[in-house]
Amino acid sequence: MLWYSTGKPHVFHHLPPSTQMSSEAATENGGVCAKIRKVIIAPRPSTQFRVSFMTVKAYVLLKVSSGSEREICKKIVELDGVMEANIIYGEFDLIAKVTAENLEQLEQFLTERIRTIPSIVLTSTMIVAREYKGRLARNPGNRN
After folding, report:
1. pLDDT confidence of residue 108
2. What does the alpha-carbon distance between residue 58 and residue 114 come to, in Å, rounded to a whole number?
3. Could you tell me if 68 and 119 are in contact, meaning their C-beta atoms sit under 8 angstroms apart?
4. CA angle at residue 96 from 63 to 113, to 5 degrees?
């Protein structure tokens, strides 16, 4: 347990374990911690918060067994959370655009729904940091 002095005699406060200092060091030499307390800034207790209005979008690249591309693509596109799936050429065979409420749900979707399909050999997930829409997507009726 870590402690720091407030400058008042015999008053100490707990620091999180990430700050390395013993309680003995806090009291020796007239309270070393009292002298350096302005240097040590204790982080606030770890609190997890979730932004519920934001969804996570990701592109999942998939390598599949040879000859199973169409079958797997049709299977994947029927899963909840898959916006679209395409057969592609290159190092990977398929790409799927997926959405989830949060990263935990994305991880669960990938491990329980996608990676359990027998013909899928390898996946690589690219999480979307920021999305920009092209002219055609912004104005679908204006196809000039």
Report:
1. 96
2. 13
3. yes
4. 80
Residue 73 scores a pLDDT above 60? yes
* pLDDT top residue among 67 and 54: 67
| Token reading at 78 | 């029927």
pLDDT one-digit tens code per residue, 20-33: 444 444 555 555 44
Domains identified in the chain and CATH numbers: 2-36 (no CATH), 56-130 (3.30.70.920)
Residue type, 139: N
Give residue 40's pLDDT.
Answer: 41
Residue 80: CA count within 13 A, CB half-sphere = 6
Q: H/E element holding 87?
A: strand 82-87
Q: How far apart are CA 112 and CA 105, in angstroms?
A: 10
Rounded CA gap, 87 and 93, in Å?
6
